[in-house]
Amino acid sequence: MSHSLSLRVYYEDTDLAGIVYYANYLKFIERGRSEWVRGLGLDQTELRAGEGLVFAVRRIEADYLRPARFDDMLEVTTAPEGLTPARITLLQQVTRGAELLFSARVTLVCLGPGDRPRRLPEALRRRMATLAQKTAQ
Asked: What predicted TM-score, i.e. pTM, was given to this entire model?
């Protein structure tokens, strides 16, 4: 049920010292989450247009372990850690080869019209349950 996204560090991602600016790791893992959701077969644009549903980060715990630098090839891994009717908890990591650079635990919630909390879409819960069963076999 995990997803991997490869990306290269560009000059615009770095700070004056030539290392990835800390806030850009949040952008990297956002891309990873978007691709993870897409990989589950959900279209976030359709969810928003059709049902008025969007995903929002409720909580993030981040550990910056080692710096990434200009032109590094990174891998962003996204894996579900927990699921309730209203929340998804994901473990996301950024690595360079076998070296762990950044790790985050991210809690997502679903918001409906008027930014009101909503249950997660049934299609997402069903898809995650199906994938969890296949992984357990």
From this structure: 0.88
